[in-house]
Specification:
Length: 307
Amino acid sequence: MMTHFYIIVHFFTFGAGVMLVSFSLIAFKKTQKIFYLNLFYFTIVIIIFSFLGFLYTYKTGLQLQFPTLYFRVYDILWSLFWFLYYRISPRFFYHILEKTIPRIVEICFNAISFVAIPYLLVYTFNILTLKNAIDIIVEILLYLSALFHCVLVFHYKNNVKKPEMRHYVQYVSIYFFIFIPLACLNVFLNFTLLPIIENNLKNYLISFSVLAWFILNIIFLFRQFSLESTHIAFEIPKEVQAKYGLTDREIQIIKLLVDRYSYKEIAYQLFISVPTVKYHASNIYFKLNIKTRAELIELLKKYSYTS
């Protein structure tokens, strides 16, 4: 029963991963934004990790004899994951935080990525005396790198300027709130004397962590697509501006309101205070005889169709 449930969880995880890969690639082709391409590559790496976790459970749970080729491919995939993860992950997180990756950080992660070579050699030649050691090393490196990315996000998240990246970093912060307790529990189980619980629960913790990452990113992409679908490329005609008595500053604020900028983000863009933005927004709503941003969008859509 537990195995069947795990297979179902993993099926949904893999499906969510494929969906995220597809959406991120579509978004990149549509917008040509490098963020979506980075998300595409990073998601592929995570799918490899998730797939390997499933293969591990499959081969250990069924207690069957598998051909040697199966284990060789399995070991190569794990080595490929270690290599790609440490190459791609720091670039991905520094990019969403709008930071240039420091040279020393890039060198360290590139050096760590070569742990894939001894890992592949140990498992290819079945060096039993080194298997436990290499497993512990790669797992510790994985948790340390995840912790590094977590600290990085929480340290720089308030400095992100682009609205869409600011929103995405908020999603990543939510994920780390989920991931950190699960990772700590996983580490605890690895060093306890509860092998049966550890073997079962560890697989679920990994699957749910990956599934949570996929779901949060899919939600973010859906949100971005919905915002782009409601985006209005418009210039308010002069007669409309005159009819409602809108100032040039109010026109600027209207455009940012339609693009879903928050008051704080509008203030940053226009170099004014948040109370000033609220004052202008209140005047805009009063002049147009509306009460919400949604009504503003609908009104402007009407003028964009008739103009």
